[in-house]
Amino acid sequence: MIERAERGMSTYAISRELRVDEATVRKWRNRFKERPRLTTLRDAPRSGRPGTISSEQRAEVVRLACERPKDNKTKFRDLWTFSSLRDAVERKLGLRLSRTEVWRILQLRGVRPHRVVGWLHSSDPLFREKVAPICKLYVEPPPGATVLSFDEKPGMQAREHAHPMKSATRRRPGRKEVEYVRHGTVTLLAAFNVQTGEVFGRCWRRTAENEVAFFEEIALRHPTGPVYVIWDNLNVHYGKRWEEFNERHGGRFHFLYTPKHASWVNQIECWFSILQRRVIRHGSFGSREALMRTVRGFIAHWNDVEAHPFRWRFRGEFRETLLPDLAA
What we know:
By secondary structure, the chain is an alpha/beta fold. Helices cover 41% and strands 13% of the residues. The chain has helices spanning 2-6, 11-18, 22-34, 55-65, 82-93, 99-109, 127-139, 208-221, 240-248, 268-280, 288-306, 323-327; strands spanning 146-161, 180-193, 199-202, 227-231, 253-257. A five-stranded mixed sheet has the order 3-2-1-4-5. Helix 9 links the parallel strand 4 and strand 5 (253-257). Helix 4 packs across helix 5 (82-93), helix 4 packs across helix 6 (99-109) and helix 5 (82-93) packs across helix 6. The longest helix is centred in the C-terminal third of the chain and has 19 residues, at 288-306.
């Protein structure tokens, strides 16, 4: 506000630009005019009871919250709750706090010890060497070449809900009965075209013979030009069968393997996530055949209406701070 006032802007213009009330702008302009110092811009002391918890004690609470529960009083507990953390603070620091005060301290620092986010670390020593050419294919595919991201999605459950879902209202979210009937599982073999976003899939068992038959169909769909296939390190992706397959097709196929424990490098996983959220997670299927029909229908809809390449931001380049971990 003061910077804009020094540039000659009016109170009204400052309030519109910063989206604050004109009275607020006027108050700070007058206050700074009376005492033109930076200390004037600090908030004045507020009324109320003085604080009883020092900054050092708050820091100790945060430090304890960032540790894993590991003493005898917190056996069989992998994560803190506000109650268990309050008790640990009293035992270790001699500081008696309420659950609400513990919550306030952690909330102020943005610490949420009860929440866990999934994380996948690749220990592949050749991570850089493997991921760099894959990312180059994503962002700079060779002219005239086809780049396919392939993987299997096993264990898709054909679950039939015992009762229909209830739609959401203004006061409550949608509801789904937890009881269901299992009708078996289905495996999807799918290839995602990195350049067009189209998906080719088959609901087949995951066997070496089926995968060779799947790529025979891929070869018919892409009869000319080199084809780059990005897939993982599953045992059926290795062996003489693929050398023979490539010889039958003039050596046009080039297979690139993602680093171990780095499924996120494979773009088909992004499409599998869309399939899971939109079709499988809340779907109700009376049989395996019903699930397969729905999956095939979604693939056809995707290719006709929604197919698009994904915007790939990671280019296989790393900051120097990451290099020691990758080398290890």
